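Hi R.,

As promised on Friday, here is the backbone we talked about, encoded as structure tokens. Could you run it through your design pipeline when you get a chance and send me back a sequence?
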């Protein structure tokens, strides 16, 4: 599944609920999911648990993009287009700390 397919899938499953919840509360839920991902990583939980949490974060980001009517795949291509958005290189050669 590519990014566009993933965003479309999340739209089909959740758009009505996302609209009912609204952008601000959807954003708050995304922060909660980031917290759960952080917890899974920092507490050394299983790879499966980390995988579930990172999928949740991505799904919530898709929901935000859907509410904003932003094509996530297009946004990624516009911003990065195969290179670092700052230095324009692949791999990144930015001089600041990674
Ligand atoms: Zn760079």
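Update: got your reply. Pasting your designed sequence below so it's all in one thread:
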């Amino acid at each position: 599944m590519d990014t566009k397919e993933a965003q479309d899938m999340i739209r089909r499953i959740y758009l009505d609920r996302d609209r009912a919840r609204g952008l601000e509360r959807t954003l708050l839920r995304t922060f909660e999911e980031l917290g759960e991902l952080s917890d899974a990583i920092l507490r050394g939980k299983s790879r499966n648990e980390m995988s579930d949490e990172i999928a949740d974060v991505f799904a919530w980001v898709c929901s935000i993009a859907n509410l904003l009517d932003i094509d996530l795949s297009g946004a990624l291509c516009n911003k990065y287009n195969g290179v670092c958005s700052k230095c324009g290189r692949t791999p990144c050669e930015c001089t600041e700390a990674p």
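One thing I noticed while checking it: The chain has a mean pLDDT of 97.

Thanks again,
M.
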